[in-house]
Amino acid sequence: MPATQSLTSEQLVAKLKAFPKRQAQEIKRNLDVVLTWRPGLRDGAEILLLASALPLYYLVRGITNHGTHVDQAVQRGIDIVHLEQNLGIFWEAQMQSWILSYNWLVTFFNGFYLYGHLPIIGALAVWMYFWHRPQYLLMRNAFLISGAIALVFFINWPTAPPRMLHDFGYNFGFVDTILDQYKTSRPDTPSWFVNEYAAFPSMHIGWNLLVGISIWLATRNVFMRAFAVVMPLVMAATIILTANHYLLDIVGGVIVMLVGLGIAVGGRYFVQRIVSPDSKEARTKGWVPWLYWLCGVADPVQSGGRSAAQPA
Asked: pLDDT tens digits for 171-209?
């Protein structure tokens, strides 16, 4: 037994000594992916797709705001409150009251609502694009599909968020914390991109959860996986504590995201069944790689042959 303990100790010391070297090698491998990257046609198409789809999404949302029948949007918000009261889950105002006495908490949640959504999604999308391409492509398609579904709701069934109900004579105790702090409901956002009546479904939680799922699939790194779990949970708390969404908006956002993810997964599976990566068409037809790209099937060459889950 003493010999075994001595051997184990020696192995531990050896591993600790080798740790900095292994980390340096891993950092170098990750940097090489970027330094040796040479953009191709599909990289340009990717940039064009996202550079057009995301602004279009927010532009349509913003335009919808100007044509909204405000009284109908407010009534839908009241209907959600009444439904939650009947279900016994109308907790939002009470939950928000827990933090209103703590300015630092209010400031944190306001900041996370404004900057913990698209900036985080964008940064993680770049990370996955270079080092976890299969997960990136799946997230991208689920992102776009769920966004299109959400637009259907925003256009046809606009809904006022809790923070606006007081302005129309309904006092449930909600406070517009972002407006109180910044004197505007959406700082740093052009007015034509803002839709004040897009409470249901909440894509803040839907897309943050989607990114969390993608991170979990992409890496086994314990810190990244912890972030993948905590980040959407913090966003769920944030959208309630800033009075931007109802609890049922979270349910709607998660369902819309899961439908988008399911369609993305199904589309990828269907394409691979129709045109197998090992088929003659995949090897000889120039249109197949583009079909794969569109449907979220990773090119083994572009993705570097990486497996579905690797260290970050």
From this structure: 999 999 999 988 877 777 666 667 889 999 999 999 999
- Pseudo-torsion of CA 242, 248, 253, 256, nearest 10°? -170
**Any domain includes 197:** yes
For residues 196, 200, 205, 207, the Cα torsion angle rounded to the nearest 10 degrees is -90
Q: How many CB atoms lie within 10 A of CB 74?
A: 21
Beta-bridge partner residues of 198: 159
* Residue 191 belongs to some domain of the structure: yes
Beta bridge partners of 159: 198
Residues in the chain: 312
Whether residue 108 is contained in a domain is answered as yes
Number of folded domains in the chain?
1
* pLDDT, position 312: 44
Is 266 contained in some domain? Answer: yes
Residues of the domain holding 167: 53-295
Residue bearing the bigger pLDDT, 30 or 240: 240
Helix and strand element counts for the chain (H, E) = 13, 0
Q: What does DSSP assign to residue 166? A: G
The CA–CA distances, whole Å, from 189 to 153, 206, 216 equal 22, 20, 30
**Model confidence pLDDT, tens digit, residues 74-109:** 999 999 999 999 999 999 999 999 999 999 999 999
CA atoms 183, 185, 191, 196: torsion sign: negative
- The Cα 201–Cα 220 span in angstroms is 31
Alpha carbon distance 262, 256 (integer Å): 10
pTM: 0.85
